[in-house]
Amino acid sequence: MKSTNLARLTPTGGVHGTKRVVVNQRQWRDKPLLKFEGQERYFKTGTEAVQIITDEAKRRDGDKKLYLEQFEAMMQSLTPVFDRAPRYAWLAKAFLEPERSIEFRVSFLDDSGSVRTHRGYRIQYSSTLGPYEGPLHFGVDVTSDKLKSCALGTCFANALNGSKLGGAAGGANFDPQRSSESEIQRFCQSYMSELSKYIGPSTDLPSIGQAVGRAEVGYLYGHFKRVSNLYSPHGSGLLWGGALPHPEAYGYSVVHFAKHALEERGETIEGKRCAITGSGKIALAVAERLIALGAIPLTFSDQSGHVYEPDGITEAKFQKVNAIKQERGARIGRYIIASTTAKYNDRKNIFDTPSVDIVFAAATSSEIDVAEAHKIADSGCKMVVDAAHAPTTPAAARVLKKLGVLHAPYKATLAAGVLLDNAEDITKTIDDITAKVYFDVSKTAIDYNARGDLNAGTNISSFLKIANLMDAHGAI
């Protein structure tokens, strides 16, 4: 029988399974998927399997709203996989728990001589595909809920990009924006004193994230090599040897993914009017790349509000914004002093921006909920592109799909950013990787009768890549 892409994704037989496979599937369904306190739960359909697994996730992590939202959305996408090959439900069950969750105290002396104590984390979710890899986030909003969700998402992103890396996330509830440079350095050193026990070139590769950029990477790597006696080449390896080569990589990845999605629909990104939320590393890189490709960025935002240029942010105007945001803690509102045409508004009103073709959500988790999704669709916008960790809630993603707005999920859009150590031509490298990721995701959605649903295609493709190898590792 001629093999198909679907058979490749589900090597146990897929929709065209032999009689032997069908018997095998019945045997799987005769086994309890979960046992708890003497109760056994069985399933006959993929929907029932998803319900059993998500109920167990709620029992274990009922206090983690963001994680549960993302976990449940991922599992719902896998319903057709469980229908066609029930044994995958047993493999999916392993995602109920990360391989390792580390939580520790981080204390340091501030500039006044007082001891400040924060909570540090590293959640190493899956090493099935290779060493753990994933971001470090610093900020008052960093919690175990956010990081567990982020670590799960990183597993799936790294499965898509072919990096042969697992997934992790870490950080601390420390705010660099309200700290001096010397305090940031002391905090990074204290954080790394503990984190260094759990990371290494062949174990775990921390990456950049919220409020973790060039300076923080340098401080973290400097202390790591001091306490571990392990080293990385300049510009590559663990923490890039303290020299972050391409902080723009994740933003470029987002834009090039959107470019390929538009091109498949017979459109081009050139001339598209784009609203950007946020004004951090990724948001700035998104704007920079949009300008280079002929698109028209319109907005930036932060906690204080958002700026809007009715005729677009040109290269010269972008350089002014970039110069402002290079100063730690600077607010985007300062830009209106440098522009005679910019308008400054409340942050929540950014989705009221007129004549927007594409929204790039690069600010924070869950910034687009159901109300914002309706507002975006009603404005005539045709595409929402995630450029941060889970900026679009699963409920909002369902609304966008129902109203005909294409949604590009963060697991796919950010996937190419991790692979760039010393790439000579990062734009070509990113374009090649995002093309492969996009067409993989798009084709998988078609194979599972979800044409155009990039969320389903992303979750199914990445899950199968992990699960097929996880099966070979046994119950670990």
TrEMBL record:
A single MF term (Gene Ontology): glutamate dehydrogenase (NADP+) activity
Keywords, alphabetical: Oxidoreductase
Keyword Lyase on entry: no
Protein name (Swiss-Prot/TrEMBL): glutamate dehydrogenase (NADP(+))
Species, as recorded: Chrysophaeum taylorii
Family of this protein: Belongs to the Glu/Leu/Phe/Val dehydrogenases family.
Oxidoreductase found in the keyword field: yes
E.C. number(s) listed in UniProt: 1.4.1.4
Species classification: Eukaryota, Sar, Stramenopiles, Ochrophyta, Pelagophyceae
Entry's Gene Ontology BP terms: glutamate biosynthetic process
Residues in Glutamate/phenylalanine/leucine/valine/L-tryptophan dehydrogenase C-terminal domain copies: 243-474
Pfam families registered for this protein in UniProt: ELFV_dehydrog, ELFV_dehydrog_N
GO CC field: cytosol
